[in-house]
């Protein structure tokens, strides 16, 4: 382990919910829950105000609504979140070439590898500057942990939440870890935690006192050795700059079980095409096609087929998925379907296209996809989702608060305005159109005020047509601003 706290862990505070609060002035300081809004939806992120009521990530949305009935429930806007994430990751990569993203809102950084820090003082300065830069570019807050290992840096960032910085000084690791719950350590989930509890082990100190042999007996060789080392604050894992993708997949959960076999087939074809679009966007192809089916009784089946070589052809993937579906009994109904591609490569094998049957063989990829796609259904009325960006020809930019019974309610406000007025329209009002998100921070003089989140970008990050200018905003977190909170 290192002699200086030069590994940094950044965790953006309630990321999705904080973006929504920054984007919508009327929600700042209020309970916000982001996730799937259907009967089977789950919570993606809850704001700190919603967490007071016991709402947390991965909770069924129905349960969240019972606990916090007055919260704002919004659909995710992933394109916006990804764009802001790229801005943040750009700031991290300016610190070091060794950045290990864990998700859109979380990453490790090796400050020593980039020359950004070499001791406690320089590490603390780098962490404080990073937090200030993130606020300047995005208007959001992030919590920073600094330590001599990845495990301890992550524990430090958790202690820093929300909106703080915690540095664990070398030599104090064992004293800090000792009284903490075993669930604090990586790899100790609910099942392992319960197993240890039944053995009378509740804290990290008790884990260390149990000894390596006892932990191996309880948990197996690999897990037992790893946990004993962590209990002694030993963690030699390096920060890994690139984490190679192992698969690309898409899946949908349906509000009502699908019983019609034809409809199931249509959904599988649609998912296969979405999966191929993701493959191509990443410049990848794959050899193994995977079908996932969760049935009415929650039983989950997976089927796979490995091709002769990698492909990114929609016809090949679609037909392989259809063959896999033939081997699955969907009697009783289907609640979830997914299609994935693994065995990834950065090239395709052209002769695989011959595997696609029918006349699609002779068509270009795009034409084949169009020829086999079902005719789109024309909806009876336009659908508006809670949280969606809209623009009205008279009232300007706003977001959907809710819709139903042929009406849609919109609050007209922007990230830099005061809380706006609410108006209701017919769902088919021609003056109301979907819109791109606006930037979360004010544009500097001379910057483009075009549609979407146009503006300057950081570290070359600019995704999905969205970027954010680097001007210092007021606090938009709903929890107030102020200087960085720093604890030893």
TrEMBL record:
<protein>
    <recommendedName>
        <fullName>DNA polymerase IV</fullName>
        <ecNumber>2.7.7.7</ecNumber>
    </recommendedName>
</protein>
<dbReference type="Pfam" id="PF00817">
    <property type="entry name" value="IMS"/>
</dbReference>
<feature type="binding site">
    <location>
        <position position="105"/>
    </location>
    <ligand>
        <name>Mg(2+)</name>
    </ligand>
</feature>
<dbReference type="Pfam" id="PF11799">
    <property type="entry name" value="IMS_C"/>
</dbReference>
<dbReference type="InterPro" id="IPR043128">
    <property type="entry name" value="Rev_trsase/Diguanyl_cyclase"/>
</dbReference>
<keyword id="KW-0548">Nucleotidyltransferase</keyword>
<dbReference type="InterPro" id="IPR022880">
    <property type="entry name" value="DNApol_IV"/>
</dbReference>
<dbReference type="InterPro" id="IPR050116">
    <property type="entry name" value="DNA_polymerase-Y"/>
</dbReference>
<feature type="domain" description="UmuC">
    <location>
        <begin position="7"/>
        <end position="189"/>
    </location>
</feature>
<dbReference type="InterPro" id="IPR043502">
    <property type="entry name" value="DNA/RNA_pol_sf"/>
</dbReference>
<comment type="similarity">
    <text>Belongs to the DNA polymerase type-Y family.</text>
</comment>
<dbReference type="InterPro" id="IPR017961">
    <property type="entry name" value="DNA_pol_Y-fam_little_finger"/>
</dbReference>
<feature type="binding site">
    <location>
        <position position="11"/>
    </location>
    <ligand>
        <name>Mg(2+)</name>
    </ligand>
</feature>
<dbReference type="InterPro" id="IPR036775">
    <property type="entry name" value="DNA_pol_Y-fam_lit_finger_sf"/>
</dbReference>
<keyword id="KW-0238">DNA-binding</keyword>
<feature type="site" description="Substrate discrimination">
    <location>
        <position position="16"/>
    </location>
</feature>
<feature type="compositionally biased region" description="Gly residues">
    <location>
        <begin position="478"/>
        <end position="488"/>
    </location>
</feature>
<keyword id="KW-0515">Mutator protein</keyword>
<comment type="subunit">
    <text>Monomer.</text>
</comment>
<keyword id="KW-0963">Cytoplasm</keyword>
<feature type="region of interest" description="Disordered">
    <location>
        <begin position="363"/>
        <end position="386"/>
    </location>
</feature>
<keyword id="KW-0479">Metal-binding</keyword>
<keyword id="KW-0234">DNA repair</keyword>
<dbReference type="InterPro" id="IPR001126">
    <property type="entry name" value="UmuC"/>
</dbReference>
<dbReference type="GO" id="GO:0003887">
    <property type="term" value="F:DNA-directed DNA polymerase activity"/>
</dbReference>
<dbReference type="Pfam" id="PF14520">
    <property type="entry name" value="HHH_5"/>
</dbReference>
<keyword id="KW-0808">Transferase</keyword>
<keyword id="KW-0235">DNA replication</keyword>
<feature type="region of interest" description="Disordered">
    <location>
        <begin position="426"/>
        <end position="488"/>
    </location>
</feature>
<feature type="active site">
    <location>
        <position position="106"/>
    </location>
</feature>
<comment type="function">
    <text>Poorly processive, error-prone DNA polymerase involved in untargeted mutagenesis. Copies undamaged DNA at stalled replication forks, which arise in vivo from mismatched or misaligned primer ends. These misaligned primers can be extended by PolIV. Exhibits no 3'-5' exonuclease (proofreading) activity. May be involved in translesional synthesis, in conjunction with the beta clamp from PolIII.</text>
</comment>
<keyword id="KW-0460">Magnesium</keyword>
<keyword id="KW-0227">DNA damage</keyword>
<keyword id="KW-0239">DNA-directed DNA polymerase</keyword>
